[in-house]
């Protein structure tokens, strides 16, 4: 039996949720850390973003304390987040945790899609991100994002 409380806190420590979800909302399944689909992207059907709310912007995660990152310059706009979820590629939990560049700098908030679904989002300075919808977490990477907020990061 999976201890969902422990998984939730490990995920929080790794900087995935950045404080926007609670353990009661999180429903782990086969795509999560101990599932047989850990290296498979969770099925996700894109829908245009209708509305974005930014709750935290230019923040530095607890896991990044002591690093030289200046997160105050990582300030996303509603337009940046709409571009992010229009262009981002969905990735597996395994890829998100082990293969994608991690940054201590992040922004998060709420989101509503044209299909009526709403949830919580988070984006890191190096283009890793997530959506939290219907008790599940979807991981993303957006190397195709061209917003100037990322310009000082990877030489784009």
Biggest pleated sheet: 6 strands, antiparallel
Provide the domain count: 1
Shape field: globular
**Regions with pLDDT < 50 over 5+ consecutive residues?**
1-14
Mean pLDDT over the full residue set: 84
The proportion of strand residues reads 25-35%
The count of strands amounts to 6
Helices and strands: which structural class? alpha+beta
State the end-to-end CA separation.
45 Å
Strand arrangement, largest sheet?
A: 1-3-4-5-6-2
N to C succession of SSEs: HEHEHEEEEH
List keywords for this structure.
single chain; 156 residues; alpha+beta; six-stranded antiparallel β-sheet; 4 helices; 6 strands; globular; disordered N terminus
Overview of the structural elements:
- With 156 residues, this protein is of the alpha+beta class.
- The protein has one domain.
- Helix content is 19%, strand content 28%.
- It is built from 4 helices and 6 strands; from the N terminus they run H-E-H-E-H-E-E-E-E-H.
- It has helices spanning 4-13, 78-87, 93-98, 151-154, and strands at 49-60, 89-91, 105-113, 118-124, 128-133, 136-141.
- A 6-stranded antiparallel sheet has the order 1-3-4-5-6-2.
- A hairpin with a 4-residue loop joins strand 3 and strand 4 (118-124).
- The protein is globular and about 35 Å long.
- The N and C termini lie far apart (45 Å).
- 31% of the residues are buried.
List the helices and strands and how they pair.
Layout: H1 4-13, E1 49-60, H2 78-87, E2 89-91, H3 93-98, E3 105-113, E4 118-124, E5 128-133, E6 136-141, H4 151-154
Antiparallel strand pairs: 1-3, 2-6, 3-4, 4-5, 5-6
């Amino acid at each position: 039996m999976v201890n969902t409380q422990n998984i939730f806190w490990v995920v929080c420590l790794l900087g995935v949720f950045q404080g926007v979800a609670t353990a009661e909302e999180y429903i782990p399944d086969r795509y999560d850390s101990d599932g047989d689909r850990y290296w498979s992207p969770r099925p996700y059907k894109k829908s245009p973003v209708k509305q974005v709310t930014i709750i935290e912007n230019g923040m530095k995660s607890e896991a990044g304390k002591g690093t030289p990152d200046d997160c105050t310059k990582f300030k996303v706009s509603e337009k940046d987040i709409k571009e992010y979820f229009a262009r981002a590629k969905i990735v597996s939990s395994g890829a998100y945790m082990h293969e994608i560049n991690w940054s201590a700098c992040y922004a998060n908030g709420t989101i509503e899609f044209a299909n009526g679904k709403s949830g919580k989002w988070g984006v890191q300075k190096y283009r890793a991100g997530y959506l939290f919808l219907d008790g599940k977490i979807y991981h993303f990477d957006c190397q195709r994002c061209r917003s100037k907020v990322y310009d000082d990061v990877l030489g784009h």
